[in-house]
Amino acid sequence: LLAIVSIALFLILFIAFDVEREVLTKENIVEPMRDIRRALLEADVSLPVVRRFIQAVSDQAVGTGVIRGVRPDQQLVKIVRDELVKLMGGEVSELLFSNTKPTVILLAGLQGVGKTTVSAKLALYLKKLGKSCMLIAGDVYRPAAIDQLVILGEQVGVPVYAAGTDIKPAEIARQGLAEARKKNVDLVIMDTAGRLQARLIDKAMMDELKEVKKVLNPTEVLLVVDAMTGQEAAALVTTFNVEIGITGAILTKLDGDSRGGAALSVKEVSGKPIKLVGRGERMEDLEPFYPDRMAGRILG
Ligand code: GDP
């Protein structure tokens, strides 16, 4: 009898408590949503991306019961964090490898974002995974880039195919790929030319990249994005994705002050994941992209 009474009492208490349980409403999320919106904008996420995200999260949050012992705003932050992580791919996105040697990785991006540095970093990263690599120097518009890649290649112990600057990038790609096949390497990474700003991405550059892509038939086309790009990242990623089709991105200079809002824009506008991040100027400073860590950084 005592047991039955105890169970009944427990049920009554449970139901009573549950009925009184708080639910997230349009009204009680207005204030915290405003703070979250501010945090996203401060992290330099582009405005249209912020708007879409806030709308989606609000729709999802309204009507959700608040977990016992948790304040409604805390619960909302958890929903936002989970959504951010999901939006950025959830888990680490691994690099893809082709079934036939060599796997080709094409790097694209604006000038100064860290493409040349990332080319060599990536070669070292893959070398540490036991893969043999070769680099192709394809930035013909910045002569120093070729010398820079040759030096970095030596530093990380990876051969670099360079053919100077008086040659079309697609021809360099063709020759480099032939060389890679001769060397029987597992992977080829090609550095390409960039322009100064997103606005100046011109047709000639995109056509050249398309030609290079056709020659290489790459498994990965990775857009290198400077974490400081901020708001412009959305337009930049859209342009490259529409024009050449990317498979993912590498976010560089995350060791800087930037909260990294660009990371959110990349996935939101292209549907493609960030695969790696650069965290410094040393060759070892390249690591996988962890969406959960990034969500924390963006929310501040
Ligand atoms: P590219 O024009 O895209 O090939 O850019 P570079 O590879 O020449 O890099 C431009 C500058 O950014 C160089 O001074 C690099 O050392 C620096 N850089 C590249 N990646 C990073 C990074 O992750 N963190 C920091 N702090 N600097 C970086």
From TrEMBL:
Protein family per UniProt: Belongs to the GTP-binding SRP family. SRP54 subfamily.
UniProt keyword annotations, A-Z: GTP-binding, Hydrolase, Membrane, Nucleotide-binding, Ribonucleoprotein, RNA-binding, Signal recognition particle, Transmembrane, Transmembrane helix
Entry EC number(s): 3.6.5.4
GO cellular component, one term: signal recognition particle, endoplasmic reticulum targeting
Top-level enzyme category: hydrolase
Taxonomic source organism: Perilla frutescens var. hirtella
Transmembrane segments: 1-17
GO terms, molecular function: 7S RNA binding; GTP binding; GTPase activity
Taxonomic classification: Eukaryota, Viridiplantae, Streptophyta, Embryophyta, Tracheophyta
Name assigned to this protein: signal-recognition-particle GTPase
Whole-protein residues included: 62 to 361 of 553
Record domain SRP54-type proteins GTP-binding: where: 273-286
One BP annotation, GO: SRP-dependent cotranslational protein targeting to membrane
Catalytic activity: GTP + H2O = GDP + phosphate + H(+)
